[in-house]
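lol forgot to send this yesterday, sorry. struct tokens for the thing we talked abt
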């Protein structure tokens, strides 16, 4: 039976990219009736420095972001990673399965470590093994993510395959990445060749989940475009990254395909299309920011939701860890 797992780092600030590439699709998977497990990966966040108070705040705010985006803690299991020790325990086993050479090829490590990789944390290097553990500790079969996580999910499959092969078992499933829809890579509003990211120095480059209606509308009005009107057909978007990005965002927000959207707006000037996009984005995004601030009023309730989710997660994870230990040859498992 299918089981969906995905995670988001509480490293401060959620963007429209996180919403369209992840959160909105998490809620859709949940509403389709599949078993869904969603995690705030605080152990991943500390692979780069996090101020403790800010981390605590970001974890709670992320939880509010999940709920405001339609993830229902009654229907989905919603929790923070560090409350379920099995993630870190399985990650250790996977540290002993994954090869140095595999990790060295991870483009996200190279990007994040930058020029001075000697000074990166060991945790940042091992990050994808912990991510594989997040997924496989639940025997999850499907992992909805944005495009940027593709290589990590391939590594997860490699780890599962090598574990099964080395121990001669058919224990860990070979997980399917689910990278679908028009917005698996939302780009910066200032530069169509860069991913929309919370770490971009320009706040105008992104829409934050906490932005109010006026800010959202302003950012779309000011989004970079080229001087031509929109092309009349999808193919015309190929060499026009900014136009394509805005069309992709429109399609994902309105649950349409890019083809459908182009049938309606193809040929329009940006002066006509941008207000349409702004209205749509405000209608969909501003209730989320309102709901997030409402939920943040009651932090005890958020902590209760996370603790309860962790209990349910542990009930699935503990027997899988025990069985893994037994396979590996640990006495007492
Ligand atoms: P993170 O926290 O960077 O991002 C969370 C999710 O948002 C997606 N995303 C985007 N999608 C489209 N366009 C964008 N501009 C954009 N920016 C971010 C990401 O692809 C991701 O799906 N390593 C993961 C967290 C993680 C995880 C896991 C994910 C840890 N363990 C297990 C899945 C399964 C990360 O850093 O995501």
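and heres what i got for the seq, position by position
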């Amino acid at each position: 039976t299918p089981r969906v797992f995905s995670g988001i780092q509480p490293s401060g600030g959620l963007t429209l990219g996180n919403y369209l590439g992840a959160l909105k699709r998490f809620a859709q998977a949940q509403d389709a009736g599949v078993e869904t497990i969603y995690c705030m990966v605080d152990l991943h966040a500390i692979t780069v420095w996090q101020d403790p108070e800010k981390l605590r705040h970001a974890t709670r705010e992320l939880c509010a972001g999940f709920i405001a985006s339609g993830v229902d803690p009654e229907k989905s299991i919603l929790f923070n990673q560090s409350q379920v020790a099995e993630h870190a325990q399985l990650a250790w086993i996977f540290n002993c399965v994954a090869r140095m050479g595999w990790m060295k090829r991870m483009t996200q490590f190279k990007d994040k470590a930058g020029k001075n990789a000697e000074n990166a944390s060991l945790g940042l290097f091992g990050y994808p093994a912990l991510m594989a553990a997040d997924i496989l500790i639940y025997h999850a079969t499907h992992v909805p993510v944005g495009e940027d996580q593709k290589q990590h999910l391939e590594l997860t499959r490699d780890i599962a395959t090598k574990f099964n092969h080395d121990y001669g078992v058919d224990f860990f499933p070979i997980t399917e990445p689910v990278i679908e829809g028009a917005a698996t890579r939302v780009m910066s509003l200032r530069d169509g060749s860069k991913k929309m990211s919370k770490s971009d120095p320009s706040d105008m480059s992104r829409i934050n989940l906490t932005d109010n209606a006026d800010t959202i509308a302003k950012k779309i009005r000011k989004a970079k475009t080229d001087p031509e009107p929109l092309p009349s057909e999808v193919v015309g978007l190929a060499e026009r990254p900014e136009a394509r990005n805005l069309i992709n965002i429109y399609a994902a927000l309105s649950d349409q395909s890019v083809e459908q959207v182009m049938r309606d707006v193809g040929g329009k000037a940006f002066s006509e299309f941008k207000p349409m996009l702004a209205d749509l984005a405000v209608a969909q995004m501003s209730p989320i920011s309102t709901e997030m601030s409402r939920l943040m009023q009651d932090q005890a309730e958020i902590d209760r939701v996370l603790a309860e989710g962790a209990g349910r997660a542990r009930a699935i994870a503990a027997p899988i860890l025990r069985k893994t230990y037994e396979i590996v040859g640990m006495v007492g498992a």
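The first strand starts at residue 3 and ends at 8. anyway ping me if u want another try
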